[in-house]
Amino acid sequence: MIDDLQTLYRLMMRIREFDSRMQVLVNAGFIRGGAHQAIGQEAAAVGVCAALDPDDLITSTHRGHGHAIAKGVDVRPMMAELFGREGGCCRGRGGSMHIADFSVGLLGANGVVGAGIGIATGAALAQSLGASGRVVACFFGEGAMNQGALLENVNYAALHALPIVYVCENNHFAMSMRAERATALANLADRALGLGLPGVSVDAMNVVAVRDATREAVQRARGGGGPTLIVADCYRLEGHHIGDPLNYRTREEVQHWREQDPIARCRLKLAAVIGDAEIARIDAEEKARIDDAVAFAEASPLPLAATAEEGVYA
Amino acid sequence: MIDDLQTLYRLMMRIREFDSRMQVLVNAGFIRGGAHQAIGQEAAAVGVCAALDPDDLITSTHRGHGHAIAKGVDVRPMMAELFGREGGCCRGRGGSMHIADFSVGLLGANGVVGAGIGIATGAALAQSLGASGRVVACFFGEGAMNQGALLENVNYAALHALPIVYVCENNHFAMSMRAERATALANLADRALGLGLPGVSVDAMNVVAVRDATREAVQRARGGGGPTLIVADCYRLEGHHIGDPLNYRTREEVQHWREQDPIARCRLKLAAVIGDAEIARIDAEEKARIDDAVAFAEASPLPLAATAEEGVYA
Amino acid sequence: MIGQTAPVGARTATYAAALNEALREEMQRDPRVFCIGEDIAVWGGGGVYGVTKGLVEEFGVGRVRDTPISEEAIVGMSVGAAAAGLRPVAEIMYSDFLALAMDPLVNQAAKMHYMFGGQASVPMVVRSNSGAPGGKAAQHSQSLEAWFMHVPGLKVVTPATPFDAKGLLKSSIRDPNPVIFLEHKRLYQTKGEVPEIEYLVPLGRADIKRIGRDVTIVSNQTMVLKALEAADDLSLSGIEAEIVDVRTLKPVDMETILESVRKTSRLIVAHEANVFAGWGAEIVARVAEVGFELLDAPMMRVGAKDSPIPYSEPLEMAILPDKDALVAAARAVVAY
Amino acid sequence: MIGQTAPVGARTATYAAALNEALREEMQRDPRVFCIGEDIAVWGGGGVYGVTKGLVEEFGVGRVRDTPISEEAIVGMSVGAAAAGLRPVAEIMYSDFLALAMDPLVNQAAKMHYMFGGQASVPMVVRSNSGAPGGKAAQHSQSLEAWFMHVPGLKVVTPATPFDAKGLLKSSIRDPNPVIFLEHKRLYQTKGEVPEIEYLVPLGRADIKRIGRDVTIVSNQTMVLKALEAADDLSLSGIEAEIVDVRTLKPVDMETILESVRKTSRLIVAHEANVFAGWGAEIVARVAEVGFELLDAPMMRVGAKDSPIPYSEPLEMAILPDKDALVAAARAVVAY
Ligand SMILES: Cc1ncc(C[n+]2csc(CCOP(=O)(O)OP(=O)(O)O)c2C)c(N)n1
Ligand SMILES: Cc1ncc(C[n+]2csc(CCOP(=O)(O)OP(=O)(O)O)c2C)c(N)n1
Ligand SMILES: [Mg+2]
Ligand SMILES: [Mg+2]
């Protein structure tokens, strides 16, 4: 559980730096296969993970670098993974959509929209069966709200009061599909009403609000009170992926949301406490951390072709 | 649309006779593969179909003989289908779980729980695209409420205001699973709240109540007002299938529900109008109709083995 | 190996009871093992085919979990529970309904170990059953094992006898990988020797169920039994068929198959699934590639015709493969 | 047939544009045809790979329907709409996600015509794409066509060229049965001749893309292009490969394949999917059964290794089949 604003800010900055640098690296051809940025959604990732204990678990999505960093994954093996190197957290086998680090409780990103929901619910079932006291946070985009897996798993979790928090990051788009074009609900959190669990909305451009809402849900989950659906209202400030034609929204709309930038908002509050110079120091440190991660990635060897067929089975 | 109580009664009686006779025929080895009876659920099938126009469409389930009869399928080819004969409505290829009769708008029963939901929703989309003015009624058991297909399709129907009525027959069990063990909802109709459509419950031991509730939903659907979820509260008076060990409920519980028998309740009301003798005549006619259907089935030839590979493709 | 059959006088049990014993023993042995599926606890005292009978009484509702009708979640949650350290044994009531759970099985369970660079393993079993029980028509009668064979990361097991059913299920539960374990509806009530002492049958090993010199018949599940009957018939006219029960389809034991073909120079592959793109194709193709010179006659496949399974009995019988088809095929290749 | 290629000087178009033309022409021709899928209308002006470009402008949002992320419903609704008389063309963005829609495809669409005794037909197309575009890893790179081949009632189409893509898609839309139409991510931007005049390519006919006498290479999609490159290489050392593009996998045109093998006496089957239980097994098995005497060498299959598709480039390249593997296989069978 993270209480100090400075750490929250630092983690958000790390995500921003990581995903910004990635864009350069994708465009320069160092990273293949494309990638999804979490820019504008840092407060959701950091706020949720700030409410978790270190040995709590999460599942993540195709847009998962923020979740990974917030949960404590080291950016060096993350960047090496994007470079497809042996030093990557998945030894270069997974890439951007499959970042996993079981050592810090990240059970994996996922390239299939909604597929993390079953995995997270099963992990929560395991905690409940083993009475581990751990909680699972399951991230997914609002696009995944319309996958059948949501109903099946959330229904089960509600029925058995599993220790899980479902976090829907409503960044307002699933590729080109605006959230309002995807359901008939005025309020996405109402999806919970049909599944028998509480549903809450939170301003996810505000990291503290996210953390506080999650903390309540985590407490309920850990105490045997069952799951909660949190709809974290945020905005995807960049394209769906690097290279998105972005023909489906106006510059004005984006500008409106940029004014809510969760990092800028946090910086404002934090500056009042620690001053601008200290903030600039944090910014520089996080920038340097990403420089270092890129250097680490570049220095890491590519996997040997001869090992390609290894590791299909445990 | 059927308004007179006598026809409603007659159709319910036909279903009861059909499924009762079937039990004898299954036990005697005339019908293979087992079968599911709709005894206790006749008012749901008849009440819903009574609110439809003849060229409206329905999809049905593994427990589908009631829906078929209520929609107007002739019991002769139905019985011949159960006998696996060439004169069956599916020429013996489908059997009890796959009764279909497109000529009266029955787009098919289904052996996969929940699979009719997608088919019905697609059929409703076709009506909407073609502006046919037709409505689709989609039957499923309360067990199907926990299939992902429900969320995906109902969400889509609500979003596009498709002309469809979702009819969940809550007969209180999915095999051995009591409805209360399958969701955390106190009221199953609340599932609609999370999907953006109205959800209503109706006493489905009362055929007139079902018809009236459906009529309202059909009017809304036909008028472009979109789908409704109707939860039709009834009871499966017999086993899940013929041969069910029935170890999961008490005789007292069944007895309690028997006292609500939808046919007995309707008979009581009808007797006040047409008298007992007239009712006895209807009963005898429907019994005779099933005798005739069995005779028809027995006289119908078995399909020729040489034709087994025909008709895989249109 | 023939030697794996229990000694004369050993105890017999049904295939369903043998599976039930495997579950019970593994649940006793390893507290991480739990069962999850529809109607496995309350219904009839333990599952539609009795495989989970008595387990909820012994292990409680926590470890023998009746679920709502949510196949994708049953398998999806099993993946998550396995990744989190448990050993789920999921049941899908009919294998036709695996069509509802392909994503967690194929895109998640099968890939996690490799895709995450070895840090995760997914030790789970999905039990279901193949085959036509008779009169259950197109949606309750399919044999889909070929699909799973084509998925790297999965193991595929299809036992024919009570002995193998028990030993293979125990091995599957102990395996650190996702295993699709396909039983067969027509086998549950068959009986065979099942020793009282504990044993395992390793995955990836075929078993010669009958020794012969004239033709090799590779088969699984019900077709092993039909092949044994066919072999009796053929023996009367002097043709000795060797019956290889493939048992595990992935990994498949090509060595045992090739060794048999080396002896007989003739191969028939038989399964209940439709022939076209069925698992028999892989066996025939492999032998054509690496055993081309061993053959004295074209290989033949025996299986269902390419049709949905019809309801009506004469049609169903015409679509499904039977002993006579095996006898005819064996005669044809021997006469070649 | 070679003759189906357009005359010299004809117009060229990309595979994506050819598909787009097919959709547009069929939508103009038949008001019952409509498109449904994720991001097919608004995104980038028409689909992730541009196949539905401009269609929503021409036909409106009623007939070019962007859906929520609900693959099971996309296919399920298509089944219902087809049964009710329309002609849906569903798009699943990546074929890996067909795993989410197997029930409506396999248990419903494929079976309805037969199971209902012929009274229903399900004229629908499910478009998706196979293959590894490079660096998209295990869940966006699979080639799953073998699954669908094993399902009676489905047709399976896998075009390699713009010409075939257009002609086959038009035929698929007009077909009264459910068709799985698998495009390939690496082909969308390839160019080829696409005549301006209307034409159809019939389902169920293979096409000889190059004539040769020494070895037959049966392949589909990208492997056709690689086989053509391999043939150029081989030709330099005097080996003339005949390249058969199978085009439709179900029904499969065994006649054309057997005719070619009759001439060359040598067969290689190549696909991007993993070899084990892939569609090549069926072709090899069929030739082994009915063309045993035609062969002068063992058949060989070329395809992916049995692994999830890795992200990192050297690994991905090691798993996927390439031209060199084809050349080596051809040399081996010719030298046999
Ligand atoms: C099952 C599935 N369908 C489609 C896709 C293609 N796809 C990738 S991301 C995406 C949009 C997801 O939207 P959302 O869940 O809101 O997450 P976001 O991208 O906004 O973070 C789509 C359609 C996919 N990866 N998986
Ligand atoms: C997808 C699927 N899962 C499981 C089954 C097995 N099964 C057949 S009927 C049934 C119970 C269905 O319950 P409900 O939907 O309430 O319908 P009811 O039988 O009560 O009419 C089950 C589990 C099935 N046919 N399809
Ligand atoms: Mg989104
Ligand atoms: Mg029920």
Brief account:
The complex is a heterotetramer, with two copies of chain A (about 325 residues) and two copies of chain C (about 325 residues). Chain A is of the alpha/beta class. Chain A contains ten helices and seven strands.
Task: Walk me through this protein's architecture.
The complex is a heterotetramer, with 2 copies of chain A (314 residues) and 2 copies of chain C (336 residues). Chain A is built from 10 helices and 7 strands. The model of chain A has no long low-confidence stretch (mean pLDDT 97). In chain A, the strands form 2 sheets. In chain A, strands 1-2-3-7-6 form a 5-stranded parallel β-sheet, sandwiched between helices. In chain A, helix 9 crosses helix 10. The two termini of chain A are 34 Å apart. By secondary structure, chain A is of the alpha/beta class. With 336 residues, chain C is an alpha/beta fold. Chain C is 37% helix and 19% strand. Chain C contains 11 helices and 14 strands. In chain C, strands 3-2-4-5-7-6-12 form a 7-stranded mixed β-sheet, sandwiched between helices. Chain C has a 5-stranded mixed β-sheet with strand order 9-11-10-13-14, sandwiched between helices. In chain C, helix 7 packs across helix 11. Chain C is globular. The two termini of chain C are 29 Å apart. The model of chain C has no long low-confidence stretch (mean pLDDT 96). Chains in contact: A-B, A-C, A-D, B-C, B-D, C-D. At the A-C interface, helix 5 and helix 6 of A face helix 3 and helix 4 of C. Bound molecules: thiamine diphosphate (TPP) (2 copies) and magnesium ion (2 copies). The site of one magnesium ion has 6 residues of chain A, from strand 4.
